[in-house]
Amino acid sequence: MRRIGWLLALAFCGQAMAYYSVTAWLPALLADTRGLSLASSGASASLFQVAAVIGAFGVPLLAARAPAWVPVALIGALWITLPIGLMLAPGWFIAWSLIGGAAQGGGFTAIFSIVARAARSSAEAARMSARVQGIGYLAATIGPPLAGGLNTATGAWTAPLLLVLAATVVFTVGGVLAAFRARS
Predict the structure, then answer these.
(1) What is the distance between the alpha carbons of residues 52 and 62, in angstroms, rounded to a whole number?
(2) Which positions ≥6 away from 61 have C-beta within 8 Å?
(3) Cα 10 to the chain's mean position, in Å?
(4) Using H for helix, E for strand and C for coil, what is the string for 124-170?
(5) Is the pLDDT of residue 75 over 80?
(6) What is the DSSP-derived secondary structure letter of residue 91?
(7) Rounded to whole angstroms, how far apart are CA atoms 12 and 161?
(8) Kind and range of the H or E element at 49?
(9) Taking 60 as the threshold, does the pLDDT of residue 36 lie above it?
(10) What is the largest CA-CA distance in the chain?
(11) pLDDT of residue 2
(12) Mean pLDDT, the chain, as a whole number?
């Protein structure tokens, strides 16, 4: 696999790990930190899933008008906002869920638009996409159990949110570097 493929795989590892960790644990986090019932916290966490549509449709619109790195950097900044916001201003969890949801929907789209841009043929695009997804989803299997283990070990949500923060930074760095590489 070419270097850009490895960068995209790294970005997708961060994307998938952050997504599955947040999806698995956001309802419990909201129940524990905001005192919501499990039903209310589940409903509130669903905003994270619904907002994905904004990112999934927004990235192509932005990508058509901006250099390849801009959508990835913007999505990365939005992704990073989710764990930081939940740590520093947890009362704004609805805003963080909406922002993070748009980011998670846009992250997938941003990565695979770079695959399409970087591939020299449709066969190479298929191979690169399969490898990026295979590596990324394999790494993603670590996220939810690790986040849950960190919560159990510490009795708090800071360590799991730091894990999500690290994953979102990996997405951002890998994605931006891949976007710059796709241009050359």
Answers:
(1) 15
(2) none
(3) 12
(4) HHHHHHHHHHHHHHHHHCCHHHHHHHHHHHHCCCHHHHHHHHHHHHH
(5) yes
(6) G
(7) 18
(8) helix 38-50
(9) yes
(10) 52
(11) 86
(12) 94
Give me 150's structure tokens. 């960190």
Q: What is the CA radius of gyration of the chain?
A: 16
Contact 20, 72 (CB under 8 A): no
Look at the pTM and tell me if it is higher than 0.90: yes
**The tokens of 83 are what?**
């764990």
Per the listing, tokens 């949801």 go with: 101
Q: Cα(29)–Cα(161) distance, rounded to whole angstroms?
A: 10
38 confidence band (pLDDT: 50, 70, 90): confident
Residue found by looking up tokens 């869920």 in the block = 97
DSSP state of 67: -
Whole-angstrom Cα distance, residue 84 to residue 96? 9
Across residues 79-97, what is the average pLDDT?
Answer: 96
> How far is the C-alpha of 18 from the C-alpha of 8, rounded, in Å?
15
- Is residue 82 within 8 Å of residue 19, measured between CB atoms? no
